[in-house]
């Protein structure tokens, strides 16, 4: 049987275009959100104690919230650079020169005690920061509040994992039992205690679980391999868009590989007619195909981010400090505004005068 290169080339091009279109649409929709509305809403929520972060930076042992990344997402979402080029290539945030933790930086900036001499603008472009774009859309476009958004993310995280498990048992019946321990581990050892309440990490896991559910419910696991490739490529690309090196994308990939294995157990293995070596190992080939397509989507979006920045900004990719851009902070600060203090210790309960 002759190999037709045009079909896989078409599948690859289609998958890339779909993934890039979805990501760019989210970025541009996020840029259309009114920054004053987003900043005011977040400032009000923080002043009312909606997101008080504990003294234990980086990881709260009781709730598991990643305070460092959460504050960084809030800082990026409220930076205010909404032009087309920035929306597609930059992830700017304000960094205090003498304080490395973004929660303190966020406190000083939204509290109004930050001056341009104290800070510098940093472009953390190595990630897409899809969670910051989603936060902008939720608050700036749909008018949600920060506490409601946090509660919604936690509820959707539970629901997405439950939906995936139920879909697996409905689709594969007894063959789905090996997936149950993975789902339990995601729920109690990964998703909820660590990332379920995190505005930074929860979106990545939610998107992954939804892709897994559709993969089974729509029968994509039994579709021709080239269409499975397109779907898994998009799943991997969007997984990378929301990924913050937190394990979400790896957890989703493991689940995809396991479900593909369960699919071959519940039904006949996929028919592979070429090449002969792969035809003799249909189950292994099917699992490797899933992993390859998913990883290809993630890698392609990483390269796409690099290419966009190199083409649109025409600057050294290793350069991430934005000299002189902190003066723009004066346009989004309200001098004299202070975040409400609480009984809990943390960067949002410190005396703002200390940061002045």
Describe the structure.
The protein is mainly alpha-helical and 356 residues long. The chain has 2 domains: 34-125 and 320-355, no CATH class; 155-310, no CATH class. It has 13 helices and 3 strands. A 3-stranded antiparallel beta sheet has the order 1-2-3. Mean pLDDT is 78; it is low at 52-61 and 320-356.
Give a concise summary.
The chain is mainly alpha-helical. The protein has helices at residues 6-31, 35-47, 67-77, 84-89, 102-111, 130-141, 146-172, 179-195, 202-217, 225-242, 248-266, 276-279, 282-313, and strands at residues 92-96, 119-123, 321-322.
Strand content bin: under 5%
Q: Cα-atom Rg, whole angstroms?
A: 22 Å
Uncertain runs with pLDDT below 50, 5 residues or more? Answer: 52-61, 320-356
Q: What average pLDDT do the residues reach?
A: 78
SSE arrangement, N to C: HHHHEHEHHHHHHHHE
Major β-sheet strand ordering: 1-2-3
Give the overall shape, derived from the CA principal axes. globular
Based on the model shown, name its key terms.
356 residues; single chain; mainly alpha
Secondary structure: elements and pairs:
Blueprint: H1 6-31, H2 35-47, H3 67-77, H4 84-89, E1 92-96, H5 102-111, E2 119-123, H6 130-141, H7 146-172, H8 179-195, H9 202-217, H10 225-242, H11 248-266, H12 276-279, H13 282-313, E3 321-322
Antiparallel strand pairs: 1-2, 2-3
């Amino acid at each position: 049987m002759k190999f037709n290169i045009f079909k896989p080339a078409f599948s690859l091009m289609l998958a890339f275009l779909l993934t890039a279109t979805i990501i760019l649409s989210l970025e541009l929709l996020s840029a259309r959100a009114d920054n004053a509305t987003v900043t005011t809403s977040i400032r009000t929520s923080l002043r009312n104690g909606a997101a008080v972060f504990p003294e234990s930076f980086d990881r709260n042992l009781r709730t598991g919230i990643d305070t460092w990344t959460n504050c960084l997402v809030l800082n990026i979402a409220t930076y205010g650079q909404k032009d087309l080029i920035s929306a597609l290539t930059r992830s700017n945030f304000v960094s205090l020169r003498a304080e490395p933790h973004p929660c303190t930086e966020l406190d000083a900036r939204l509290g109004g005690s930050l001056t341009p001499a104290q800070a510098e603008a940093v472009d953390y472009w190595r990630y897409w920061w899809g969670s910051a774009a989603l936060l902008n859309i939720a608050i700036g476009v749909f008018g949600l509040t920060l506490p409601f958004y946090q509660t919604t993310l936690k509820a959707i995280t539970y629901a997405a994992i439950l939906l995936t498990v139920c879909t697996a048992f409905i689709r594969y019946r007894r063959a789905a039992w090996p997936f149950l321990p993975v789902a339990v581990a995601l729920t109690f050892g990964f998703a909820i205690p660590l990332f379920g309440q995190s505005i930074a990490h929860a979106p990545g896991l939610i998107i992954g679980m939804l892709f897994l559910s559709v993969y089974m419910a729509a029968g994509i696991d039994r579709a021709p391999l080239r269409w499975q490739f397109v779907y898994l490529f998009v799943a991997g690309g969007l997984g990378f868009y929301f990924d913050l090196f937190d394990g979400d994308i790896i957890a989703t990939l493991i689940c995809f590989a396991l479900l593909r294995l369960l699919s071959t157990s519940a039904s006949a293995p996929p028919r592979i007619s070429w090449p002969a070596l792969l035809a003799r190992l249909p189950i292994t080939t099917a699992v490797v195909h899933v992993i390859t397509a998913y990883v290809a989507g993630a890698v392609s979006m990483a390269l796409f981010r690099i290419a966009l920045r190199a083409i649109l900004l025409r600057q050294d990719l290793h350069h991430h400090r934005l000299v002189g851009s902190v003066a723009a902070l004066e346009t989004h600060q309200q001098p004299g505004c202070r975040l409400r203090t609480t009984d809990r210790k943390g960067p949002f309960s410190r005396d703002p005068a200390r940061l002045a």
